[in-house]
């Protein structure tokens, strides 16, 4: 089967969607011997789509683990003008403001637009909204006469990003839609999307790889000893709740003064806000905050294993792949009662849920897990069982390919 994947970034770019599409591509090319080509940008993260001066990779073509990858140069020369246009049109609800927001969001890829006419595929799959490459994928599928499958990764709580008619119009045109959670499926049903088009799959992880991680090298490197450690892994985005986690730490230190927190993930423009919070702490408190902004994907399991508790107090996620990775590493997780997260993390069963931006409730949950080993074991065992039954990469890739095959046959 000839498969064309469209995604905003590809390894070494880091992100949940980026890693999902990498793993699905490698599974299809390696296990099923499908002809897989990834069409992507030369950006390390989405900030490059509308911010000039960010670090970029070289555009071009290469083969990575049997997957053909074509990277196209991001065009962001008019980002300031587009930012003003989208802000005004959104504020005053002008006609087609959703289209203006989409163009501003990018990525604008002149080279890929030219390439669309010559793409050959049986299936075109794109991830994720609200970015503009989703619409490039639709044009490519139409041009090639291929089935169009969309993996949206929706965050409905983000009205600026997802309150766009253009998104749901495109989903209606697709042959199939892959949702991460039942929450996302139910939201789409409410938008009038046909139920037989929606397939709930989720994302995956490597249980064997994560179960072998000990975290000992990370603990040695940062002189953590046997002290309690809380870990966060993810880009330093404004919605990720890292500020809440940092503000919870002084409350935790009152009862567990030796607790450390690891913040692992690439820095963004929002990182300056986090720096200000850290600067407000005393020198001894700052010593208990460890930032790991750059790490190889292979090191992620060791970073998670170095912690005793995994906290991801994000306001919205389409799934939350790091929850799976923490469970596979036998670490208890804390998430928020927000959006799709409760579809994955079941409060009191495989994790603890707290209110978004509530640093006191987050501190209480962390302290409960620090002092209650029995609860930690219960949550991690239930979480790992969930991973093994539903969320290995083999299981997830099999589901993706089954959807592709059905969509191509129907087409």
Describe this structure in words.
- This protein has 411 residues and is α/β, with parallel strands linked by helices.
- It has two domains: 2-204 and 392-410, Rossmann fold (3-Layer(aba) Sandwich), CATH 3.40.50.2000; 207-390, Rossmann fold (3-Layer(aba) Sandwich).
- It has 19 helices and 14 strands.
- It has helices spanning 16-30, 79-91, 97-105, 110-115, 133-144, 159-162, 165-173, 182-190, 207-211, 216-221, 242-255, 271-279, 283-286, 300-306, 321-328, 341-344, 359-371, 373-390, 393-410, and strands at residues 2-7, 35-41, 60-64, 67-72, 123-127, 147-151, 176-179, 198-200, 229-233, 260-264, 289-292, 309-311, 333-336, 352-354.
- The strands form two sheets. It has an eight-stranded mixed sheet with strand order 3-4-2-1-5-6-7-8, with helices on both faces. The protein has a six-stranded parallel sheet with strand order 11-10-9-12-13-14, with helices on both faces.
- The model has no long low-confidence stretch (mean pLDDT 97).
Shape: globular
CATH architecture of the largest domain: 3-Layer(aba) Sandwich
Q: What's the helix count? A: 19
The largest sheet has its strands arranged as 3-4-2-1-5-6-7-8
State the CATH superfamily name of the largest domain: Glycogen Phosphorylase B
Report how far the terminal alpha carbons are from each other: 14 Å
> Tell me about the biggest sheet?
8 strands, mixed
């Amino acid at each position: 089967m000839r498969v064309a994947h469209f995604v905003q970034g590809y390894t070494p770019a880091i992100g949940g969607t980026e890693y999902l599409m990498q793993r699905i591509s490698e599974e299809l090319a390696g296990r099923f011997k499908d002809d897989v080509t990834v069409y992507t940008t030369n950006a390390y993260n989405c900030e490059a789509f509308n911010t000039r001066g960010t670090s970029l990779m070289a555009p071009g073509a290469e083969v990575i683990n049997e997957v053909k990858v074509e990277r196209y140069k991001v065009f962001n020369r008019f980002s300031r003008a587009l930012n003003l246009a989208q802000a005004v049109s959104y504020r005053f609800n002008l006609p087609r403001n959703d289209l203006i927001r989409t163009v501003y969001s990018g990525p604008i890829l002149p080279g890929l637009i030219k390439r669309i006419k010559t793409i050959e595929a049986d299936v075109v799959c794109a991830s994720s909204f609200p970015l503009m490459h989703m619409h490039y994928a639709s044009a490519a599928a139409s041009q090639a006469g291929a089935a169009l499958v969309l993996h949206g990764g929706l965050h409905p709580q983000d009205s600026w990003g997802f309150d766009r008619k253009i998104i749901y119009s495109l989903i209606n045109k697709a042959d199939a839609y892959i949702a991460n959670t039942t929450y996302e499926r139910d939201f789409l049903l409410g938008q009038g999307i046909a139920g037989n088009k929606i397939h709930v799959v989720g994302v995956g992880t490597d249980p064997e790889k994560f179960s072998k991680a000990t975290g000992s090298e990370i603990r040695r490197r940062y002189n953590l000893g046997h002290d309690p450690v809380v870990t966060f892994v993810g880009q330093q985005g404004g919605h990720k709740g890292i500020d809440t986690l940092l503000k919870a730490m002084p409350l935790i230190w009152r009862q567990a003064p030796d607790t450390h927190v690891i913040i692992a993930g690439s820095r963004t423009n929002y990182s300056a806000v986090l720096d200000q919070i850290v600067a407000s702490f005393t020198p001894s408190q700052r010593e208990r905050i460890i930032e790991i902004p750059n790490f190889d994907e292979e090191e992620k399991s060791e970073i998670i294993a170095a912690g005793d508790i995994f906290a991801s107090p994000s306001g919205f996620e389409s799934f939350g792949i790091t929850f799976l990775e923490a469970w596979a590493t036998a670490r208890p997780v804390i998430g928020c009662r927000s959006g799709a997260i409760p579809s994955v993390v079941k409060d009191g069963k495989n994790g603890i849920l707290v209110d978004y931006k509530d640093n006191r409730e987050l501190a209480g949950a962390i302290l409960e897990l620090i002092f209650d080993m029995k609860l930690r074991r219960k949550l991690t065992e239930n979480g790992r069982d969930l991973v093994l039954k539903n969320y290995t990469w083999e299981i997830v890739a099999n589901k993706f390919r089954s959807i592709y095959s059905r969509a191509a046959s129907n087409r």
